[in-house]
TrEMBL record:
This is ABC transporter permease. It comes from Streptomyces castrisilvae. CDD domains: TM_PBP1_LivH_like, TM_PBP1_LivM_like. It is a multi-pass membrane protein. It holds the Pfam family BPD_transp_2. It is found in: Cell membrane. The chain crosses the membrane at residues 15-41, 61-83, 95-116, 142-162, 195-214, 226-248, 260-279, 344-361, 368-391, 422-441, 497-516, 544-567, 579-607, 619-636.
C-alpha cells in the first residue's frame, strides 16, 4: 500500500499522458491503416492544434471551445491537403510518402515557429478546471481527470463509428477492397481525403486539449510523433481498444517507469517496439519471401528448383570458356571501343574537381565539403541496403554513430592514426550491424523502416545515457587531432582534413562499386528483384542480406569516423533521426541504385542545410523541407534516372532504377 500511495500520482499522470497519445495515435493509425499513408508529419498536425488552442485560450469556457474548434478545423484542413499531396505517390510505396511527409513536417514546423514564435506558449484553462481535487488522499489537477474522461468517451465513440455505421463500413472497405467500394458507388478518393482529414482533426483536437499537458514548443511535434509511432506499432491497426491499451502502457512507462526504473525507462519503449515488429515479421505475417497462391504448389516449386539447378549447371560448364575469352589480350581494346571509357570520363572529371576544391573555396566551405563526404558515405550505405538489398532503412545512423564515437574515444585514448581509426571504427560498426541484422533482414517494406527506426532511437537513448563514453547530450570535444600517416602531425587545417576525407571516401566508394558490380553484387540485386525464385533455386538469401547489412554498417562506420575527424567534435544531433532522413533523401536525389548519385545528393543536402541557410538564418528546416518535397516529386528515380531516361548510363555505370512495385492494400499492412 505504501508503494501504491507513493506512486499514485505518477500512475494517474501516466494514464492521462497515455490517453493523450491515444488520441494522436488513433489518427496516425487511421491514416496508415486505412489510407495507406505513412505520415511523418502527424506530429506537426498536433502542433497546429496545440499552437492554435494556446493562442486562443483566455481562461474561459468560450476560449476553450473556440480554440478546440479552430485547432481541429485547421489540422483537418491540413490533413485534407496532405491527401492531395500524397495521391501522386500512391504507387511508389511508403518510402516516398515518408520522405514527402517528413519534408512537409520540416516546412510546417518552421512556419509555425515563424508565426507563433520559438518560445513555449502558456495555456490558460477555465477556472473550474484550473484547480486540484482530492484523489485517495492526494491532490490532483482537475483538468487531467477531465481529459481522461473525454479520451475514454472518444475511444468508445470512434469504435462505434468504425464498426456500427455506414461511414465506418466505407472506411473499412477502402482499406480492404477499394475496387469493390467504387463498384458500390462510393468515391475511394473522397474516402481517402475524408480519412486523412479525420486523422488530422484527431491530432488537432489532441493538440488543443493536450496543450496543458504537452505544451506547444520546439521539439514537441517530434516527441509526439515518435511516441505515437510506438503506440501504433504496439497496438496494431485494427482495433482502437488495442491502441488505447498500448497508449496507456506507453504513458505509464513515460511517467511511472521513470520513477520506478529510471535506468531502464529510456530503452523500454523502443525495445518493446522492435521486439513486437520482429515477432510479427517472423510469426504473425506471411513470409514476404514465399510465393502465395497456386504458384506455391510443392510440385511446381520442385519443378522450378530442378530447372534452376540444371540452368546453373549449364552455366558452370560454359563459364571456363567465357573466362578464357575474357582473358584475351583484346579485352582492353574492346573496353576502349565500347562505352567503358565514356562511363569513366565523368567520374574522372568529378574526381579532379573534388581534388581542386581546396584552391577554390574558403575554409568554411571546405569544411562543409568534408562533412558532405562523411554524410555521403552514410548515403552510400543506405543505397546498398535500400537500392540493392531492398531493405529501406531509417536507422543507418546507428552504425554511423558507432563509428563516430569509436573514433572519438580512440583519439581520446591516444590512437590518433587515421587508418587505424578507420579500420577499428568500421569493425565496430560491422559488429553492431551483425548483432542487429537478424532482426532486420527477415522483415520487408514498411516493417523494415519501423524496425530500423526503433534501432536508431534505441541507439540515441544509449548515447544520451552512457555519458562516460559519449558525453551524453553535451557530446565530445577536445580530443587530439587525427594523423593522416604514421609519423606525421595531427591535421588541423581544413584543406588537410578535406583531402584526407576525400582519399578515404574515394577508396571506400571504389571498393563498394567493385563489390556491387561483382557476382556477389549481382546476387544481391537478384535477391531484391526475385527473392522467391532465388530461394527456390537454393540460394541462401538470408545470408546474402545479412552480409549486405554488415558491409553497409561498416561503410556507415567509416562515414561516422570521417565526420568526427573533419568536425573535431561530436554531438547527439550529428547521429540523430534527422540525419537518417537526410541520408534517405540523398538516395532519392541520386537514385536508388546509384552510388555516385548518393554522394551528389549528400552534397546537395549539406549545401542547402549549411551554406544556403547561412544566408537566410533561422530558415534551414524550411529550405530542407522544400528540398525533400521537390526531390520526391521531381526526381522519382533520382539523378541516375534522368540520365537513363535519355538512354545514357549513370556516372557510376549503375543500371536504370527498377520501378517500385505498387504497395499492398493499406489495410493489409501492419507495421
Amino acid at each position: 500500500m505504501e508503494l501504491l500511495d507513493a506512486h499514485l500520482v505518477p500512475a494517474v499522470d501516466g494514464v492521462a499522458y497515455g490517453l493523450l497519445l491515444f488520441v494522436v495515435a488513433a489518427g496516425l493509425s487511421l491514416a496508415f491503416g486505412t489510407a495507406g499513408v505513412l505520415n511523418l508529419s502527424h506530429g506537426m498536425l498536433y502542433a497546429i492544434g496545440a499552437y492554435t488552442g494556446a493562442e486562443l485560450s483566455d481562461g474561459t469556457w468560450g476560449g476553450l471551445v473556440i480554440g478546440l474548434a479552430a485547432g481541429t478545423a485547421a489540422a483537418a484542413l491540413a490533413g485534407a491537403g496532405l491527401s492531395a499531396a500524397t495521391v501522386p505517390l500512391a504507387r511508389r510505396g511508403h518510402l516516398a510518402q515518408a520522405l514527402l511527409t517528413f519534408g512537409i513536417a520540416l516546412v510546417g514546423g518552421d512556419l509555425l515557429i515563424q508565426f507563433f514564435g520559438a518560445d513555449e506558449l502558456p495555456v490558460r484553462v477555465p477556472g473550474a478546471l484550473d484547480s486540484s481535487v482530492h484523489l485517495l488522499g492526494h491532490r490532483y489537477p482537475a483538468y487531467r481527470l477531465c481529459f481522461i474522461a473525454m479520451a475514454v468517451v472518444l475511444a468508445a465513440f470512434g469504435t462505434w463509428v468504425l464498426t456500427r455505421t455506414r461511414v465506418g463500413a466505407a472506411v473499412r472497405a477502402s482499406a480492404d477492397d477499394p475496387q469493390m467500394l467504387a463498384a458500390t458507388g462510393h468515391n475511394p478518393r473522397a474516402v481517402h481525403t475524408g480519412v486523412l482529414a479525420a486523422a488530422g482533426a484527431l491530432a488537432g483536437a489532441a493538440g488543443v486539449l493536450g496543450a496543458p499537458i504537452i505544451g506547444p514548443g520546439p521539439g514537441t511535434s517530434e516527441n509526439v510523433l515518435m511516441l505515437s509511432l510506438v503506440v501504433v506499432v504496439l497496438g496494431g491497426l485494427r482495433s482502437l481498444w488495442a491502441t488505447l491499451f498500448a497508449a496507456v502502457a506507453v504513458g505509464e512507462v513515460q511517467t511511472l517507469g521513470v520513477s520506478l526504473l529510471p535506468d531502464l525507462a529510456p530503452y523500454l519503449l523502443f525495445a518493446a517496439m522492435a521486439a513486437v515488429l520482429v515477432f510479427r515479421s517472423r510469426f504473425a505475417e506471411p513470409a514476404a519471401h514465399e510465393e502465395q497462391g497456386p504458384s506455391s504448389d510443392p510440385l511446381a516449386r520442385l519443378r522450378r528448383l530442378l530447372a534452376a539447378r540444371l540452368q546453373n549447371r549449364s552455366r558452370t560448364v560454359a563459364a571456363p570458356a567465357r573466362e578464357t575469352a575474357d582473358a584475351a589480350p583484346g579485352r582492353f581494346g574492346a573496353w576502349l571501343r565500347g562505352n567503358g571509357w565514356r562511363q569513366a570520363v565523368p567520374l574522372l572529371v568529378l574526381l579532379a574537381l573534388l581534388f581542386a576544391l581546396p584552391g577554390m573555396l574558403d575554409p568554411y566551405s571546405i569544411s562543409l565539403a568534408g562533412s558532405a563526404l562523411a554524410l555521403g558515405l552514410l548515403a552510400v550505405s543506405v543505397t546498398v541496403l535500400t537500392g540493392y538489398a531492398g531493405l529501406p532503412t531509417l536507422g543507418q545512423t546507428a552504425p554511423f554513430a558507432v563509428g563516430a564515437y569509436a573514433t572519438a574515444n580512440l583519439a581520446d585514448a591516444g590512437w590518433t592514426m587515421g587508418p587505424v581509426q578507420i579500420v577499428l571504427s568500421a569493425l565496430a560498426a560491422a559488429v553492431f550491424s551483425a548483432l542487429t541484422g537478424p532482426a532486420v533482414i527477415r522483415a520487408r517494406g514498411t516493417t523494415v523502416l519501423m524496425i530500423t527506426l526503433a534501432v536508431g532511437e534505441l541507439t540515441s537513448a544509449v548515447i544520451n545515457q552512457v555519458k562516460s563514453v559519449t558525453g551524453g547530450a553535451d557530446g565530445l570535444v577536445g580530443f587530439p587531432a587525427t594523423q593522416a600517416l604514421w609519423g606525421g602531425e595531427g591535421m588541423t587545417e581544413e584543406s588537410e582534413l578535406y583531402v584526407y576525407a576525400l582519399v578515404v571516401a574515394v577508396v571506400a566508394v571504389a571498393l563498394t562499386l567493385l563489390v556491387l558490380r561483382s557476382p556477389a553484387g549481382k546476387l544481391l540485386t537478384g535477391t531484391r528483384g526475385a527473392e522467391a525464385r532465388m530461394r527456390a533455386s537454393g540460394h541462401p538469401v538470408g545470408r546474402y542480406l545479412l552480409v549486405a547489412h554488415i558491409c553497409a554498417g561498416a561503410l556507415a562506420g567509416v562515414g561516422g569516423s570521417l565526420m568526427v575527424t573533419v568536425q573535431q567534435y561530436l554531438s547527439p544531433a550529428d547521429v540523430g533521426f534527422e540525419i537518417a532522413a537526410f541520408a534517405l533523401l540523398a538516395v532519392v536525389i541520386g537514385g536508388a541504385t546509384s552510388v555516385i548519385g548518393g554522394l551528389l545528393g549528400a552534397g546537395l543536402i549539406v549545401f542547402t542545410r549549411d551554406w544556403v541557410a547561412s544566408s537566410w538564418p533561422g530558415h534551414g528546416p524550411l529550405l530542407l523541407g522544400m528540398l525533400f518535397i521537390a526531390a520526391v516529386y521531381l526526381l522519382p528515380r533520382g539523378l541516375a534516372g534522368l540520365r537513363t531516361a535519355i538512354g545514357r548510363p549513370a556516372p557510376d555505370g549503375t543500371p536504370p532504377a527498377v520501378a517500385t512495385p505498387a504497395p499492398s492494400p493499406a489495410g493489409k499492412v501492419s507495421p
